[in-house]
Write a structure and sequence with these properties.
Length: 153
């Protein structure tokens, strides 16, 4: 269900997405309001689930995670037990930054961050040891052109 947000709510969200660590005073000033109404709107958006949490964005390369792979997975298994095991396996792997179930020829796509190709192979070997997968294709990102967590509001 889509939350009903007005122009001020959206402006607050834009500010929070840009920098969630900024003060309420700074957010209020940027959206043309005062601190208490801004705090109440933020609280309400949290209660509605519009704001799911706050986190710090960390540079993966600063941590030595220089390789980003997009992993295309085809499976011949589609039963509930296989899906449960597959999802459980993905949740347990910190290298998996994103996982999506797709429509079309590819069943799943994963975004995997690791140190290098050898580390990817360790991940791959662990994955196929846990769950039966029909076909895996790994694509190495040569350059990250755009990456953002900011949604258009």
């Amino acid at each position: 269900m889509t939350a009903k947000l007005d122009k001020t709510d959206r402006a607050i969200l834009a500010q929070l997405q840009r920098d969630a660590a900024q003060s309420l005073d700074d957010i209020a000033r940027a959206v043309g309001s005062s601190k208490t109404p801004v705090w109440n709107r933020i609280r309400k958006m949290r209660e509605l689930g519009v704001i799911k949490g706050q986190t710090a964005l960390v540079d993966p390369e600063a941590l030595g995670l220089e390789a980003c792979f997009f992993v295309l997975i085809r499976t011949s298994e589609h039963d509930r037990e296989w899906q449960r095991k597959f999802l459980e396996t993905l949740q347990a792997r910190p290298e998996v930054m994103e996982a999506h179930r797709l429509a079309g020829d590819i069943d799943y796509i994963l975004k995997v961050r690791v140190e290098n190709a050898r580390a990817y192979d360790v991940f791959y070997q662990a994955l196929i040891a846990e769950v039966k997968i029909h076909n895996v294709t790994a694509l190495l990102s040569m350059e990250e052109i755009k990456s953002t967590t900011i949604l258009p509001v």
